[in-house]
Structure to design on (73 residues):
């Protein structure tokens, strides 16, 4: 399953999310929303207004969600 973390610099919840993914040994890619206008538009169209936004297969959510991360992989 492909996991993408849409992040922003100096984002505490973004760092917590990537650390939790690392601790579970999950592979993911990070896209910086401040550097990628297309990605910013995509997450906005999904209805999100905060970072991080995590897309994992068919699931997606915003914020640090250890409950959702624990269901991955």
């Amino acid at each position: 399953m492909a996991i993408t973390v849409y992040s922003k610099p100096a984002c505490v919840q973004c760092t917590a999310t990537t650390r939790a993914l690392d601790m579970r040994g999950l592979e993911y890619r990070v896209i910086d929303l401040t550097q990628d206008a297309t990605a910013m538009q995509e997450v906005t169209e999904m209805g999100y207004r905060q970072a991080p936004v995590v897309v994992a297969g068919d699931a997606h959510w915003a914020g640090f969600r250890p409950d959702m991360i624990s269901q991955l992989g």
